[in-house]
Amino acid sequence: MNGVKFIRENGGLARQLSGNDHISGLIVYGESDVPRRLVLSASEVEEFALNSPVLVYHVQEFFRINEGAKLYIQSRLMADWMYTEIKSLQNLAEGNIRQIAIYDTSLSMGMINSNVSNLQQVAVELSNQNIPLSILLAGPLMENDIPALSDLHNLNADRVSVVVGQDIGGKGDYLSRRNGIYRGVSCIGAVLGAVSKAKVQESIGWVEKQNLVSTAYPKPIEATTEMARELDVLGFSDGTKISDYTPAQLQSIHEKGYIFGTKYTGIAGSYLNDSFTATKLTSDFAYIENNRTVDKAIREVNKVLLPKVSGPAYVDPDTGKIQASTASALESICDDVLDQMVRNGELSGYKVVINPDQPILKTSKLEVVLRLVPVGTLREITVKIGLTLQK
């Protein structure tokens, strides 16, 4: 029909989310240098589309999943695989980055374990400065790499996760094929968006909340076909589709601790298989949400205890140990911030313990013990069903 057609667009007001849990970082290695900066929307990086298309794509994907978040970005032509740029980007953000994605075009299957270890070292160094973060790693993989991937649960890198998922049919697939040789760009931007969108206690695999499919990108002039909705057709960063694999093969990749997109029968959309970190499953920090919960508690408790450093600590004149009232006062200020995390649903419970039997006059040191009860995650639900003559 003839007439005037209006299309209502969203995002022009650039409204920002509250809090800091969504503040994220993204570094791409292997494209033209883009200096460190903060971006608040995908439109702010359009000028880099020609020379840094992968960076722009992952920024777009991040904001597609979690509009209103804050993202610090950088692109480097070369990587030294020590990833010192993470520290520089965290410094620019004044320590506020909670999760960061690293896409490295030079990454190969044989380098995954060593690069994960290097990233873990960076994360540990930042954690020792009380500015912890979670790290995602991705890169292009070659044909037949996926079945031969090593088991990440044999590593000891509980702050690092490896993303091998890929869009097949949308812009991610188009960028991967644009040079005639398939070099997967992965879906790490969308995964980073999912992490920033989730509350610290939530798994990025939460089906009810984390559908990755929303819209399709406009078709480039040189493209011959229309693009599918992004991440509606799923695969791996070697260009294979998840439909190319048997359920047993997909389960094997899942059990090795990698993150990728998956489908569920009976519900539309695409979802992440889980939130693994590169460590043994028996670890308390085997999943991203475990790290993010503890990291938030560290930041919040540090915020209230730091002003007390080098302050007076009164002692019992009869024992020379810290006064019980002083210990109780310090426990109380820790209680306040952890109480808030419980009210926010980020913790199930906690206990703060300061043993008053500590020789403060001799050591000038005080030990505080925090015991956190996390929120569980329903990773598998078993339903017993059968026919009967009566209920």
Main attributes of the structure:
two-stranded antiparallel ribbon; 14 strands; 2 domains; alpha/beta; six-stranded mixed β-sheet; 391 residues
Can you characterise this structure?
The chain is α/β, with parallel strands linked by helices. It folds into two domains: 256 residues; 82 residues, no CATH class. Helix content is 27%, strand content 16%. It has a six-stranded mixed beta sheet, sandwiched between helices. Strands 6-12 form a two-stranded antiparallel ribbon. Strands 8-9 form a two-stranded antiparallel sheet. Helix 7 packs across helix 8. The chain is globular. The mean pLDDT is 93.
Structure at a glance:
The protein is α/β, with parallel strands linked by helices. It has helices spanning 53-65, 85-92, 112-127, 171-177, 188-197, 247-255, 288-305, 324-343, 360-363, and strands at 24-29, 34-39, 71-76, 99-104, 134-138, 156-157, 160-162, 165-167, 234-236, 261-264, 267-272, 278-279, 349-353, 369-373.
